[in-house]
Amino acid sequence: MPVIRTIRVQESKNLFKNLVIGACLHITTETANLVITLEKCGARVFLTASNPLSTQDDVAACLVKKHGISVFGIKGEDSATYARHIRQVAEKKPHLVIDDGADLIVFLHNNPELAGNVIGATEETTTGITRIKNIEKEGKLLFPVIGVNQAQTKYMFDNRYGTGQSTIDGILRATNILVAGKTIVVCGYGWCGRGIAKNLKGLGANVIITEVSPLRALEALMDGFQVMQVEMAASFGDIFITATGNAKVIDGNVFKKMKDGAILANAGHFNVEIDVEELRKQSKKTRQVRDFVTEYMMENGKKIYLLAEGRLVNLGCAEGHPSAVMDMSFAGQFLSIKYLVENKMSVGYTPVPSEIDNKIASLKLESIGIKIDRLSSYQKKYLTSWNL
């Protein structure tokens, strides 16, 4: 992760001296690089998982044993354990919060006695930013929050290329199916959905897009995909992938119309996009047929296969995004936390400052040996003139 490595070398070892950072992130090798860098710059970090299935136990053990970092997370932990781990980090009364899904931020807002030290927080998911904006709308936001997910160096690369590749990686590892020739329904055509659809098309799939936004639906159509309502697509799809950030995108009505052997996977942060409870109600029995693959025998005799319990398939069934793309996302987290420390910000939600975006892009290009042109003085003058 060359960008994070460069930042580690450039930044002061006292940048975060005497500051406690509470981090709720997927515990992966990429996250380890971020956490180690924060510690090298003086912070004391307490890390908890942001998804019950995403923890890489060997990484968690390494952070504890080799780096002395407190980690709370076990792959496959139940909901009660997951909640307890978030509480344990919140009880450290952090000065800074780094979040993925806003579970730690929301916990602090529900337990404000633990939030008194918080200077500010960062959030790196669409779902998490939606939650934070809703807190702000109600006038209940307690501290400044920078939305890392709205950095161009995050959503244009992590969401599109990272999720686009790792979601398919998770499905393939779990099922070993052939994508070519399959009809695959992608629910949502935001940056994640775009990336997933593009990669599937490249692998030879017949891709159908479902959307609630007329603009995104039109974009998907112009990009060469079929567009229809999810209930209409239900009878065609071999595989269904949700990437919306919303709840019950695939519900009971859709299950009833699915073909025998349909596969369900979720690429959204929370396990709410597929109505798993309704899937259970409509099934006669279930069985585990492979690791992280559950077969539901439906009342109508058809079988539906759910991957990773409806949780993030790229982390539940695989290893998440490649480090090359997470390098930029975590650089955004680090530099945004630095910005919070160095600038007194008022309470509220704000996107990542453009100078941070530009710095990350420049460092990334530099790390792979690419040089770009610069505007000449004449060109700068031309762009600021109106009487041409």
From TrEMBL:
GO terms classed as biological process:
one-carbon metabolic process; S-adenosylmethionine cycle
Q: Record's superkingdom?
A: Bacteria
EC number(s): the record gives: 3.13.2.1
List GO molecular-function terms, semicolon-separated.
Answer: adenosylhomocysteinase activity
Q: Which GO terms describe its cellular component?
A: cytosol
**S-adenosyl-L-homocysteine hydrolase NAD binding domain span:** 159-320
User: Any note on cofactor binding?
Assistant: Binds 1 NAD(+) per subunit.
Which residues does the annotation say bind NAD(+)? Answer: 125-127, 190-195, 211, 267-269, 314, 321
Q: Which reaction does it catalyse?
A: S-adenosyl-L-homocysteine + H2O = L-homocysteine + adenosine
What InterPro entries does its record include? Adenosylhomocyst_ase-like_sf, Adenosylhomocysteinase-like, Ado_hCys_hydrolase_NAD-bd, NAD(P)-bd_dom_sf, S-Ado-L-homoCys_hydrolase_CS
Q: What class of enzyme is it?
A: hydrolase
- Pathway annotation: Amino-acid biosynthesis; L-homocysteine biosynthesis; L-homocysteine from S-adenosyl-L-homocysteine: step 1/1
The entry's substrate-binding residues are 28, 100, 124, 154, 158
Q: Which family does it belong to?
A: Belongs to the adenosylhomocysteinase family.
Annotated protein name in UniProt: Adenosylhomocysteinase
Q: Which organism is it from?
A: candidate division TA06 bacterium ADurb.Bin131
Name of the encoding gene: ahcY
